[in-house]
Structures are given as C-alpha cells and as structure tokens.
C-alpha cells in the first residue's frame, strides 16, 4: 500500500529546518525522510544514526507490548561468574561488534570566529583580570587537590573523562582540521607515505560504507607520552604503511587529534580512555544490512608487529563478507544501469514516435489548410466572376444609345476587337473615355439589350477592373480609362483603335 505524500507546507518551521538538515547529510528523498524523522521525534542526530546504522526495534513499542502481555515471573538464577561474563550491558552475545558512531559534521557557519583586532584590544583588560583572579585559585587547587572535587558534580558512574583543553587552537571544519593534523604530523615526524584521507570523519565513514571497505580510525593526543613513540615507530614503519596502502585491503585512513572538535566527539562515542587509540570499522551484515561497526580495537603503546597482528586477522575475517556484499552491489548497479538504459531507450523510442505523429499531424493539417485555401480561392473567384457578370449587365443598361445622324459634334471610332471583329460606332464628343471603355466591356450584352430579362442591380462591394486597353497605331498611343477626359479631346473627330488585352506575367509564363 503506497504511503500518502506529506505536504511540506504543513510542517512547522523547526520541523522544516530539521528536514533540510537531515536531507543535506543523507541525500534521502524528502517523502521517505519525513516518516523516519517522525519516528525519531524530529531529532536530526537520532534520525541520521538510524539511516546509516540501521533502525532497530522501537523500545516504546516493546514496552507497550510487554505491558499488554506480561511475561511469567521466573526466578533469576545467576552466579557471579556468569554476571561477569555477561558484562555491564547485559547482552548475551559478547562477540557482537559495537556500532560505529555517526558524527554530524559541524557546518562552517556554526564555527565561532576569532574576534577582530578592535574587539581583542577591548577584551584584553578582562582577560588580564581573569588571569589575575584565577591564578590564586589554581594555586590553591594545586596545593589541595580535594577542593575541586568537592564542588564538582559527578554525573557519570564510571571514570570521569577530562575534556581536552582546546584553548588557543583555532576551530576548523572537519576537512581543514584533517589537513592541519596531516601538516602537523609531517612537521613533527617528517615526510611519509601514509594514505591520508584529507576528509572529515563523517565523509570517510560514508566512503567506507559506500565502497564496502574498511575505515581505520587513529586518535592521537599530544599530551600523552606514548603518542610520539607510536607515531615514529608504528605509523612510520614501512610494513605498516604498506599494509595501509595495499589496494586489496581497501583501507581508508583517518587520523584525528582529540584537541579538535570532531576528533573529540569520535573519541567520546568510541569510549576511548587510553591513547593512542585505533579502531577498525566496516559493515556488519549480521547486525544490519547498512550497519557500520567497530570490529577491532588497539589501545595504548605497542610495536609495529603487534599492531599488525591485531588488525590483520580481523580484516581478513571481514574481507570475504565485504567482497560478497560488494559483488552484490555491483550486480545491483548493473541491473539498475540496464534498467535505466532500457527506460532511456523506451523514452527515446516514444519520443521518436511522438515526433513522427506530430509531423504527420502537421502534414495533414498543412494539406487540409491548402485544400481549404484552394476551395476558398475558387469560391472567391466564382463570386468575383458572378459580380463581374452582374456589373456588366447593369452597366450595359446604363450606356447611352448611339447618337443619331442629325446630331452634331460626333466622333466616329472604329474598334478592332480581340476576336478579329471590327466595330464602327459613333459617340458624342462630350462622352468620357470611361464610357468608351464601358462600351467595349459590355458590347456583347448590348446585343441582347432587347431581351426581356430583368436588369440586375449594381453589385455591392465591387470595383470593376478593365482587363484591356485601347491603343492606336502609327504612332502608338495608349488611351487610359479616365472619367475626366472626353473622347473628343483625346481621339478627335475620327479614330481607329485596337482593343489590346492586358496579359499578366503569370499568364505569360
């Protein structure tokens, strides 16, 4: 059953901030991240730990189930030896590896910047006063060591761990802090070939989890006397460096200085109480499919041979399991890539089909538009021809009759028609050239003027266009259809004119 999607706008401002922080670290889908954050009471650190280490059983749900179904009371029979073997955690599987801590990296904007020069000058008197008053108190604490313990509140049942004094050490982000550790190590012990990661602990843990490899965590404390001998005799040993750099071991090396914030958090989470400290971390499928656990530890001073003897068996025992998981991951990636290629090919084929269908629709639309335009042209041409026919019949009824023989001021004109016919016609000298053109245009209808057909009216929205011109030869003179010019002024008393059709360029072609 599909889970309904949650509207992000319905979340509160603090919940949206927690969701943004969680997705920026885990890169998980938003709709899949919201239920996990809800189960974690919107605690970002708990949700990130569940995502990377696997989500175990819910203690609240188990407690409610235990209340509803109380187990039968049985007497507990256990001796001192069994209690010691069971350990303080009360688990029956002492060989179960401890979960590797997940440290949320501190963003750069949360780092406390150093004050400016002006503020440092202003704060300097207060620092001097603080040192002036703290010196007698520190001297009393040195003389009477029991006095600080009287005012100290012990909140732990085990050994009280002393926080490393980081005063005077500039806080940096995890990547820059790791580069500083590398630089300080090189300056102290010389050039080396250690495979430095140049990344923070969280990034190295994610890389080891992603590559199904090993993460070797080394925590150093410059305040301990054994640190110098461990670095110079163990870490600088050629056999140890070869073990770290062996590609078959797939080791990601991370070295931390407990004076840095991230390294101190890692040491606290790993319960480190003795330096130098080494932890080998890898995936443990028996705990969870995505759990990262500590499979080997090495604390205190040691030599190179003993150091490798502690790490090599644990690494060899886990290599086969990790190789199996790695091959399974490769197979899953190959299947996913193949599926993506198939989906991509299907999308390309679907896009090609859509493009073909679109081109076909466009071609059909173009053909339909051309047919429609052609039909419209035919309709317009037929309408124009009908209006022209109506205009010629109407104009034929409006042409004046030929003047009689007894009238004076008459012009005799011989017209050579296109059909090789010759017409003789008399016109009044006061008639316009437009009347002469109308006579030629409507000549065939003048022959049928005595018919009983009803004379049509003048067509509306029509402007007649003459498709011929009247010219005379020797010399050639073209007489235009002008309403203001009279026949007597243009032609004279007699005229011999030719009706010359106007041929357009398209018709000539």
Automatic annotation (TrEMBL):
Keywords: Coiled coil. Residues 84-95 have a biased composition (Polar residues). One of its GO terms (molecular function) is ubiquitin binding. GO terms for biological process: ERAD pathway. Residues 356-392 form a coiled coil. The keyword Coiled coil applies. One of its GO terms (cellular component) is endoplasmic reticulum. The keyword Coiled coil applies. It comes from the Eukaryota. Transmembrane segments: none annotated. InterPro entries: Thioredoxin-like_sf, UAS, UBA-like_sf, Ubiquitin-like_domsf, UBX_dom, UBX_domain-protein. Residues 84-106 are annotated as: Disordered. Residues 406-476 form the UBX domain. This is UBX domain-containing protein. It comes from Lachnellula occidentalis. The lineage of its organism: Eukaryota, Fungi, Dikarya, Ascomycota, Pezizomycotina.
């Amino acid at each position: 059953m599909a889970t309904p999607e949650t509207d992000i706008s319905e979340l509160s401002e603090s919940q949206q901030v927690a969701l943004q922080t969680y997705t920026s670290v885990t890169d998980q889908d938003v709709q899949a991240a919201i239920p996990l954050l809800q189960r974690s009471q919107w605690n970002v650190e708990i949700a990130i730990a569940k995502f990377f280490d696997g989500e175990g059983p819910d203690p609240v749900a188990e407690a409610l189930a235990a209340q509803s179904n109380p187990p039968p009371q049985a007497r507990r029979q256990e001796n001192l030896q069994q209690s010691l073997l069971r350990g303080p955690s009360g688990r029956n599987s002492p060989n179960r590896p401890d979960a590797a801590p997940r440290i949320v990296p501190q963003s750069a904007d949360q780092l406390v910047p150093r004050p400016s020069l002006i503020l440092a000058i202003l704060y300097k008197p207060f620092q001097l006063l603080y040192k002036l008053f703290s010196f007698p108190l520190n001297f009393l604490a040195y003389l009477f060591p029991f006095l600080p313990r009287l005012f100290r509140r012990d909140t732990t049942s085990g050994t009280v761990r002393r926080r490393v004094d980081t005063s005077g050490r500039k806080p940096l982000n995890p990547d820059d802090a790791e580069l500083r550790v590398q630089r300080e190590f090189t300056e102290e012990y010389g050039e080396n070939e250690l495979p430095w990661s140049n990344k923070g602990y969280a990034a190295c843990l994610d890389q080891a989890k992603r590559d199904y490899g090993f993460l070797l965590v080394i925590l150093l404390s410059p305040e301990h006397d054994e640190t110098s001998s461990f670095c110079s005799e163990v870490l600088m040993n050629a056999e140890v460096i070869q073990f770290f750099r062996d590609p078959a071991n797939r080791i990601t090396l991370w070295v931390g200085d407990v004076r840095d914030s991230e390294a101190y958090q890692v040491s606290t989470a790993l319960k480190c109480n003795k330096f130098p400290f080494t932890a080998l971390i890898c995936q443990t499928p028996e705990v969870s499919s995505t759990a990262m656990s500590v499979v080997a530890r090495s604390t205190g001073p040691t030599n190179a041979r003993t150091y490798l003897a502690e790490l090599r068996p644990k690494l060899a025992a886990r290599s086969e399991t990790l190789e199996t998981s790695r091959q399974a991951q490769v197979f899953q990636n190959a299947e996913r890539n193949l599926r993506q290629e198939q989906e991509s090919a299907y999308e390309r084929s679907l896009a090609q089909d859509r493009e073909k269908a679109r081109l076909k629709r466009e071609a059909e639309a173009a053909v339909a538009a051309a047919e429609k335009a052609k039909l419209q042209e035919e309709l317009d041409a037929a309408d124009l021809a009908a209006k022209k026919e109506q205009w010629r019949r109407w104009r034929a009824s409006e042409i004046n009759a030929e003047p009689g023989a007894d009238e004076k001021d008459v012009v005799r004109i011989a017209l050579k028609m296109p059909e090789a016919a010759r017409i003789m016609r008399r016109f009044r000298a006061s008639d316009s050239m437009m009347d002469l053109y109308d006579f030629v245009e409507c000549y065939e209808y003048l022959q049928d003027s005595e018919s009983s057909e009803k004379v049509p009216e003048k067509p509306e929205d029509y402007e007649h266009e003459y498709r011929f011109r009247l010219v005379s030869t020797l010399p050639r003179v073209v007489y235009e259809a002008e309403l203001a010019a009279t026949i007597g002024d243009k032609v004279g008393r007699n005229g011999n004119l030719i009706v010359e059709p106007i041929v357009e360029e398209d018709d000539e072609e």
